[in-house]
Amino acid sequence: MERMKLERMTKTSVQDLALFDGKPLFAEPLHVGRPNRPSKAVFMQHADDIWESAWLTNNGPKVQAFEAALCKMLGVKHAIPVCNATIGLQVAIRALGIDSGEVIVPSFTFIATAHCLEWQGITPVFCDVDPATHCMDPAKIEPLITPRTRAILPVHVWGNICDIEAIDAIAKKHKLSVLYDAAHAFGCDHNGKMAGNFGDAEVFSFHATKVMNTFEGGCITTNDDEVARIIRLMINFGFIGKDQVTHVGTNGKMSEISSAMGLASLEAFDGFVAHNRRNYQHYCQRIAEISGLSVLEYDETGKHNFHYIIVKVADDAGISRDAIVKILEAENILARRYFYPGCHRMEPYRSYYPNAGLLLPETEKLTEVLLCLPNSTATTDEDVKSICDLLAFIMQNHVEIVKSAAK
User: Fold this and answer.
1) Measured between alpha carbons, how far is residue 100 from residues 144, 151, 251 in Å?
2) Is 289 helix (H, G, I), strand (E, B) or coil?
């Protein structure tokens, strides 16, 4: 069903803004990431197969088919489906033999990246990021390495692939494992090689809000046969065979119905990306004309999923990022402040490291000036136009808006 909008689409005065009791631009909430849905018929055929087979979980035919399809698409030896990416990170950490000590990780990421370490008694050590890519800055890694450091856990933020070569060189020099959080990076590449092939392992998210989803899920990729063998044990309680346990494990398996959604979504994936890309290009074109705002641009010469529309509010914009988000939310445009306020300012890390921000100046800055705008197959060209028109109005009238909000 097409999302309903109110007839009045143009704001002609500041008092028309919903923040000041005007009518919202959108009649229903427009989320940053509504699920990309594949063909219902394709999904239902897979679901019917599951129903007829009565094989619902435990490495059934749909999971096996999904794994094979992932391996083919990503060009990896192993792409092991899991119930979600957080469990995937926890399992991958253990499979790499990391069970204590410290792991270097960005604070500019979703909290699960840090929690997957803390949950297992491993200390996350926060590293600053590159202000251009928003990924971990390799130049900031080595000063954080201590005798307790066991690994580096970088994040491909927004699908921007980390500086693989520099990070791998540091890891090799100091004999550290490298595990990439690739939650944002499905379908992205680096120098012609797909994400999934880097470090000792990578973990993707197939959560409902990601470019491709399995309702809830993820996968762990690796080209190391031994690491893959351990991962397969660990996601099934450590069982080998029917009644023999050889490894400490958990229940990290993906279900058949989630894999059915994954198979249907893989078939539709190119269409998802094409839609995202059109929206991204429209946003870039329009926002380039708006003073005080800029879009984080992606390299279109390689592969990218274009899923995240990241806008930076300039220091001299005359209105804060938070004020803009508040205005958008009142209009039912649910923009997000990624990754506000940074993991180091969330518990328990805020209490553990009260002065961590002193070593994270770029992270601190980014968390105050970035916002993420709606994008998915549920976001239409007309939606993008309306959002950009509203942003232009906000920036053209920011002085009056700020004064009115202060009353």
Assistant:
1) 16, 10, 21
2) coil
Query: Residue 241 — very low, low, confident or very high, per pLDDT cuts 50/70/90?
Result: confident
Neighbours of 257 (CB within 10 A): 19
Enter the tokens of residue 357: 């921000």
Q: Of 22, 20, 21, nearest to 10 (Cα)?
A: 22
d(CA 287, CA 326): 19
Segments of 314-353 assigned E as strands: 333-334
Helix (H, G, I), strand (E, B) or coil at 259: helix
DSSP-assigned letters across all residues of 157-176 = GGGPPP-HHHHHHHHHHHT-
Q: Identify whether 81 is preceded by a cis peptide bond (ω within 30 of 0).
A: no
Q: Which residues contact 178 (CB under 8 A, 6 or more apart)?
A: 151, 152, 153, 154, 167, 168, 171, 198, 199, 200
Long-range contacts of 300-303 (CB under 8 A, 24+ apart): 302/188, 302/189, 302/190, 302/191, 302/192, 303/187, 303/188, 303/189, 303/194
Write the CA distances from 190 to 15, 95, 274, integer angstroms. 47, 25, 19
* This prediction's pTM: 0.95
Q: What angle do CA 71, 77, 81 make, to 5 degrees?
A: 55
Q: What is the model's pLDDT at position 57?
A: 96
CA distance 343 to 114: 7
In the block, tokens 């109005």 appear at 393
Q: Name the residue with tokens 């009045």.
A: 8
The angle at the Cα of 87, spanning 86 to 91, to the nearest 5 degrees, equals: 120
Radius of gyration of the chain (CA): 22
- 60-64, 237-241, 340-344: the lowest-pLDDT one: 237-241
What is the mean predicted confidence (pLDDT) over 295-299?
A: 97
Q: How far apart, in whole angstroms, are the C-alpha atoms of residue 68 and residue 66?
A: 5
Neighbour count for residue 76 (Cβ, 10 Å): 23
Decide: 36 and 154 in contact? Cβ < 8 Å.
Answer: no
| Distance set, CA 63 to CA 58, 74, 79, 107, 259 (Å) | 9, 16, 11, 33, 5
Amino acid (1-letter code) at residue 390 = L
**Separation of alpha carbons 337 and 16, rounded Å:** 24
